[in-house]
Specification:
The protein is mainly α. It has helices at about 10-35, 35-60, 65-80, 85-95, 110-120, 130-140, 145-150, 155-170, 185-205, 210-225, 230-245, 270-280, 290-300, 310-325, 325-340, 345-355, 365-375, 380-390, 395-410.
Length: about 400
């Protein structure tokens, strides 16, 4: 049974909604059967194009995903027949014959394995990190190459070549289309999570593209659904949700960036926070994402800045720096200790972080020093430091926020 034929705009919206879920399923399944990445993506795209052409007149099918899979499968069959490929691939494709009346596959069936294989293949360590990010966006998320190029600040032709090289490398080096098991899974999973973390971070920074964060959150939900027993997957999802919950409160009415203590916490997304807490409750190991999620949970559940459990955050950073030391973590640790035990404690850790290297000329480090100095009572020096940080920070939104803070302190 079909719905009444929708207008073109409504049909386009239905195609977009169906594509979000169906595209990666179709691509993953066709890659498994044909072994041809380009063919799988082309057929999935053609299925969406056919839907845009037909659904305005015919109506949206009762099973949009099955309809798209059928069209993509038939297109792949046509191409393979013309290429006279081996009978086995044709036979396997012939078995993929969903109809409008058939239900879409559940996550627990083969399609779940296909999607996991796709994620792990796109994030294989043999590929450069830029290629992993681009291939994940293109193949797993279905983001058009032109949009990925815009997000990554390269030309569309450059992005097309990058994607082609990545697919070619997968074929030529024999990167297996499978989810590793045993010790290999333990080794590979952090690389997959690192790609998602990078995607989210690129979308969440002050001048970032929100689409990155949206796709990272969607993939984290999918990975958690497919691998519910993996503690760090649940932790990463929780971290994303806590950060995502503040998105609507990060800017004022004029679009200026607001620091955590200046945000209206009534605007935080309580549903996302609750989902994050439920995910965090399933975390059973103390990995790097688990500690970051616990830190984010302290912020998300505090009614005010003063009510924040800063000693707990400081202890979490102490644990985190022991397993994943970095200049950024050292910087955040100084902030946490400054709030938990006084600005002098924070300045001491900041000095130690500078001695450790990696923070030279870092505007965020200068801004942290400015905040700690302001809390010690030296407003004029703090204002000068905020202006120094603003002079070198890249993001315009961050620059405005730093200058506003400097102006406040100088009054």
């Amino acid at each position: 049974m079909r719905t009444q034929a929708p207008a073109g705009a409504v049909a386009a919206e239905a195609v977009a909604a169906a594509g979000v879920e169906a595209y990666p399923r179709i691509v993953a399944t066709l890659i498994r059967v044909t072994g041809d990445w380009a063919l799988a993506e082309d057929c999935a795209q053609e299925a969406l194009a056919v839907a845009l052409e037909r659904w305005p007149a015919d109506g949206v099918p009762s099973n949009p995903g099955g309809w798209l899979m059928t069209v993509a499968r038939n297109r792949a069959l046509d191409v393979l027949r013309r290429a006279t490929v081996e009978r086995r691939k044709l036979h396997d494709l012939a078995l993929l014959t969903p109809t409008d009346a058939q239900p879409e596959p559940e996550v627990g069936e083969d399609v779940a394995d296909d999607r996991l294989r796709l994620i792990f293949t796109c994030c294989h360590p043999a590929l450069a990190i830029e290629a992993r990010v681009a291939l994940t966006l293109r193949t797993v998320c279905g983001v058009p190459a032109a949009d990925i190029a815009r997000l990554l600040l390269v030309s569309e032709s450059t992005m097309t070549r990058r994607l082609t090289r990545a697919r070619t490398r997968i074929t030529q080096t024999g990167i297996p289309y499978r989810v590793p098991s045993g010790p290999a899974l333990t080794e590979r999973l952090p690389g997959v999570l690192a790609v998602l973390y990078l995607l989210f971070t690129r979308g969440y920074v002050a001048d970032g593209e929100p689409a990155f964060a949206d796709e990272a959150l969607r993939l984290a939900r999918l990975l958690d659904l497919l691998m519910p027993e993996q503690s760090e997957v649940a932790a990463l999802l929780a971290l994303f949700l806590f950060q995502h919950s503040r998105r609507g409160a990060r800017r004022d009415a004029e679009g200026n960036l607001l620091t955590l203590e200046r945000q209206d916490r009534r605007r935080w997304d309580r549903t996302a926070i609750a989902e994050g807490l439920a995910a965090l409750d399933r975390v059973r190991h103390d990995g790097p994402y688990a500690w970051q999620a616990r830190i984010a949970a302290c912020h998300a559940t505090a009614a005010t800045v003063d009510a924040t459990d800063w000693p707990a955050i400081a202890r979490a950073y102490d644990a985190l720096i022991g397993i994943r030391a970095s200049p950024v973590i050292a910087l955040n640790r100084a902030v946490a200790h400054g709030y938990a035990y006084g600005p002098a404690a924070g300045l001491g850790l900041l000095e130690a972080a500078h001695a450790g290297g990696g923070l030279d000329s870092n505007p965020l480090a200068v801004a942290v020093e400015a905040d700690l100095v302001a809390r010690q009572g030296d407003r004029l020096r703090a204002a000068a430091l905020f202006r120094q940080a603003a002079a070198t920070v890249a993001a315009a939104a961050e620059r405005r926020a730093l200058l506003d803070r400097a102006d406040e302190l100088a009054r």
